[in-house]
Amino acid sequence: MIRWLLWLLAGALLGGIVHLVAVLILPRTATQDAYSRLSPISPVNAVAALPQPTPQSEVMPFMDPAFASAVCRYDLDSGPIKLTVPITPAYTSVSFYTRRGVAYYAINDRSAGRRQIELQLMTAAQRADLPEEEDVTAADRLIVESPSGTGLIVMRALAPEPGLMPVAQAALSRATCKPEPLAAER
Prior knowledge:
The chain is of the alpha+beta class.
């Protein structure tokens, strides 16, 4: 009896180890991650609107049809990115992801407290190169540090009624995501 319990315990332990290794390795070996799926339809350092999901097709899994969505694939090798997203009457959010899909920052229109969400995205090294300006406070400039040089910025605007979808899409069409030279380079 004890022999069977030991075999059962060893099998459960081995199964747990195999499961853990698979869960940790699988995301790194997946070829159809979000960044790869969005590469054909979104240029680097520019905003691209995502098509509305239908029951037959969607660019990304689990897209909500009540939201208009846009994406910016960023590459910080050429310098920081300046992101500007106009807010909509209902709800607007911006989420930041690394190349591997790890979320590292998010902001919405209620947190921004302005008519638009405006921030600078840069690496830690680029932020260290910024000159200190005494007249600029943290409230005047929102700087987000990216843990990686490439990644995704996903912008979403809520359309609480189907008739308001054009308003949400129009707001996201005015969003910008463009490289900005550092102050030392100007």
